[in-house]
Amino acid sequence: MENLWETNPFSNGAKVLVLLDGTERLAREEIEYEFSDKDLVTTIQETSEIDALAYQFYQKFGNDPSKLYWYITDVNGVVNPLDLSNLEGLGMIIPDYVNIQRYL
User: Fold this and answer.
1) Which domain holds residue 45?
2) Whole-structure pTM value
């Protein structure tokens, strides 16, 4: 088994789902986040990218804060982190780093 970086979204466990056509998909449970008054809110722009948002808000907390993107996607129910176009103009919660440390 390969070693995964500690902020991998599958580091807390994953399941392999076998679909009806025989293809396999990796799945995991989303975190159950307790909101805090220290959470921030940012407005999604046309050019917003989830890893860039993670870097912007978590850069003072580690070597590669862009890997923390999945906390933002879980808390906001983002289905496709590669395409935020359907969220343009909406507010996105940026979870407080201290609160998400328990998931690391």
Assistant:
1) 33-103
2) 0.75
Which of 54, 52, 50, 70 has its CA nearest to residue 62? Answer: 54
Instruction: Please check whether residue 88 is in contact with residue 46, taking contact to mean a CB–CB distance below 8 angstroms.
Output: yes
Residue 53 counted as domain residue:
yes
Q: Assign residue 40 the CATH number of its domain.
A: 3.10.350
The pLDDT tens digits of the residues spanning 25-58 come to 767 777 788 899 999 999 999 999 999 999 999 9
Q: Per the structure, how many domains does the chain have?
A: 1
Convert 42-75 to b/e letters by CB count within 10 Å (16 or more is b).
eebeeebbbbebbbebbeeeeeebbbbbbbbbbb
